[in-house]
Design brief:
21 helices, Beta-Lactamase, 6-stranded antiparallel beta sheet
């Protein structure tokens, strides 16, 4: 009997000992920065360990730690801040990203894991350049240039190393592609005289862990770069879309397709990629979640929204698209919004002077051009010419212009469409907000064309908008057809006449191999606004001439409803004056100016005459 008692007591002590040991292991596992030492020395192992550490930090029960009230409240605030940062870091919040990276930096230096100056090269072997991957080289170069040049680091990285220049592919075609070979050559060129410190290596490793943990994968650093757009999943074979035959099995997959729009040129970064379809899907499912109108799903397979920094995000997935893909349009790639910094070609005083007075004269202006020509950027810069006393109202599909950041001291309100608030409701609301100038972010369909007619004719002094038309003729025809489509007019001539009456100026932009510039500034002259011959001669209204009769019958039959007059043209890298505004437009502009402004305006118009092509200097 005693033996059984001893055995029972021993079993109880063994159970207690086991429980204490497991409790001790739990405390070690769930300490503020502790985690079980992972096996192996690869970055993905580190990522899993960091994830476990953050879970442990969030799960730890502070009430069981016998803390003072002050310490308890302090740690509670830290947990709340971290919880928020972990959520928002995944949506592109740079402040939250910085906080999470600080935690990661501390975690990976925890003694039980042992990241030290001696061991850090086991993860990114900067001491053995030949062992570095192309992604390692890309991220090290990015870090070095950003450390040296700050926000413009990526620009210097691309330009100083020539990575922005085209090369010839195997077929002799000129392509823009930062290949693994090119990034290797750039790395060898830049890093031959540079030695990274332990602090540098720790920052690079921390970034690599973050981008797989909460960031945007291999594209994460690009979101901090000064560039125009980031596209992913847009080339290569869509994973799982079709059966892959042996013939194309070694081709690139869409999950390794990362492209950027840099200084107006589309450049593929084939030196980096997401590595797997799961990683591309993870990034696509995170990149749009800052403030989305709806969640991405098979039913709603496309999302258009913005990030915290104002970038426009478009995400698509099957079945709408043949692959998961995202498009992030950044609007901070231009350091200055001053017009003279954007329009910098020879004789730039011609378009700048004319645009200034067209805006001061309250003309309705369309900024046209294909994608990536800089329409939005130019529109943003031209706001500086608008009278400071005029209140500005914007209607956009999604917030893109971010005018309040560029002009914080001006009276500006922006509205965007939502599922429950239409653009028409936004325009109706704007009429009650003391607005003077109305801006439509982009006119891309019939309803938006009708908004231009509304805002130009009622409740605002003038309007500005962007459009994808290639010519002034095409612009008026597109707007006229939009009005017919909505059945606002039943007669083609009436619709086209209204469009020509509403749009006074077409400022057209082009992108020629990365050189974005104004190609022309064109005045739209409605036929009805041109005077009759007797009016030009100053004859009384009763003295109708034969020329007047001829003109009348021409206008009543098959006469063109409007005329497109080029005012400024761009040729051979220079701007030239082709025509001054028509007499009617000159009078309209003068009627909006003060006496002193009118004198300055007329002086500037005389000054522009010297910039006619072939004019004497």
């Amino acid at each position: 009997m005693r033996l059984l008692n001893y055995l029972a007591i021993a079993a109880v002590f063994a159970l207690i000992g086991l429980a204490l040991w497991r409790y001790y292991r739990m405390l070690m596992r769930y300490s503020d920065t502790g985690f079980e030492e992972p096996e192996g020395k690869d970055i993905q192992t580190l990522v899993r360990a960091v994830n476990e550490a953050f879970i442990a930090i969030q799960k730890r029960n502070l009430q069981e730690m016998n803390l003072s009230r002050r310490e308890y409240e302090k740690r509670s605030r830290r947990k709340a801040e971290l919880r928020t940062a972990l959520k928002e870091a995944a949506y592109g919040n740079l402040g939250a990203k910085g906080l999470v990276k600080a935690y990661i930096r501390d975690i990976i230096q925890e003694p039980r894991y042992g990241i030290t100056e001696a061991s850090i090269d086991d993860y990114i072997p900067t001491n053995r350049p030949q062992a570095l991957t192309s992604q390692d080289r890309f991220e090290i170069l990015f870090y070095v240039f950003r450390k040296r040049y700050g926000e413009r680091g990526f620009v210097h990285m691309m330009v100083d190393t020539g990575l922005n220049r085209p090369t010839l592919d195997a077929d002799g075609n000129e392509v823009y592609d930062v290949t693994k070979e090119r990034i290797g050559e750039a790395y060898a060129q830049v890093m031959k005289d540079i030695r990274l410190s332990y602090s540098d290596k720790l920052e690079i490793l921390t970034q690599r862990i973050f981008e797989s943990f909460k960031g945007f994968g291999a594209a994460d650093l690009l979101f901090e770069a000064t560039l125009d757009e980031i596209d992913a999943g847009v080339s290569g074979i869509p994973k799982g879309g079709f059966d892959i035959t042996e013939k194309v099995r070694n081709q690139d997959f869409s999950y390794n397709a990362i492209w950027i729009l840099f200084q107006g040129v589309n450049i593929r970064l084939s030196c980096i990629g997401f590595g797997s379809q799961d990683e591309l899907v993870r990034v696509c499912n995170n990149v749009y979640k800052y403030d989305p109108p709806h969640m991405l799903s098979r039913k709603d397979a496309a999302v258009v929204t913005t990030m915290k920094d104002g970038s426009r995000v478009v995400v698509v997935r099957p079945p709408v698209a043949d692959s998961y893909a995202f498009f992030v349009r950044k609007f901070n790639s231009v350091a200055s919004v001053k017009p003279e910094d954007l329009v910098a070609d020879t004789n730039n005083t011609v378009p700048l002077t004319l645009l200034k007075w067209l805006i001061r004269g309250q003309r309705n202006i369309a900024i046209t051009g294909s994608q990536n020509t800089g329409k939005t950027t130019l529109l943003k810069s031209l706001i500086s010419y608008i009278d400071q006393t005029f209140n500005i109202r914007l209607q956009e599909l999604a917030f893109e212009l971010s005018l309040r950041y560029a002009y914080p001291h001006r009276n500006i309100v922006s509205l965007q469409e939502t599922d429950d608030f239409s653009a028409q409701e936004g325009l109706n609301l704007q009429k009650k907000t003391n607005g003077a100038v109305n801006i439509i972010g982009e006119v891309a369909d019939a309803h938006q064309a009708s908004y231009i007619v509304q805002t130009s004719m009622v409740a605002s002094l003038f309007a500005m908008f962007t459009h994808h038309a290639k010519t002034a003729q095409a612009l008026i025809e597109a707007l006229g057809n939009n009005l017919l489509e909505l059945k606002l007019y039943s007669n083609r001539d009436d619709a086209f006449s209204m469009a020509a009456k509403v749009v006074n100026i077409d400022c057209h932009l082009v992108n020629v191999r990365g050189d974005r510039h104004i190609e022309r500034i064109t005045e739209i002259v409605p036929a009805s606004s041109e005077p009759y011959p007797s009016d030009r001669k100053g004859l009384p209204a009763s003295d109708m001439t034969a020329e007047d009769a001829k003109e009348y019958y021409k206008r009543s039959t098959d006469r063109e409803l409007f005329t497109a007059r080029d005012l400024v043209v761009w040729e051979d890298g220079c701007f030239y004056l082709k025509n001054l505004p028509s007499e009617a437009m000159m009078e309209e502009i003068r009627s909006k100016l003060s006496v002193s402004e009118e004198e300055e305006f007329l002086g500037d118009m005389r000054m522009l005459e010297q910039y006619r092509k072939g004019a004497a200097a």
